[in-house]
Amino acid sequence: MGEDGGRYFLSQMIDVLGYMQEKGVVHRDLKLENILVDETMDLKVADFGFATYKKIEKLKSYRGTMTYMAPEIKEGKRYDGRQIDVFSTGVILFIIVQGIFPFKEAKKDEYFYNLLL
User: Fold this and answer.
1) pTM of the entire structure?
2) Which of 34, 52, 67, 85 has most Cβ atoms within 10 angstroms of its Cβ?
């Protein structure tokens, strides 16, 4: 969808993430399959099966989809659910703009992951 599509998506996702964070909720499985678009091109986030509102700053459970998952989840570290949702949103944005996944997994041997460091 290119940069214009990416800007449109990111603008709406910032609103979505802000709303969820105001409510103290983290999704933990944001991915393309969980982003719906209505007839007016407004985004709707679906599938809150892994969502939580408890201790969102100090989570440890292994949740999410591998290709969208932040490295701290895979490494078994404590993580802030809000940051995890932002990471997944960045992966989705990359896919929308570039048309490919940035990596199979967010690991140090992946080219685009190393650019984040």
Assistant:
1) 0.85
2) 85
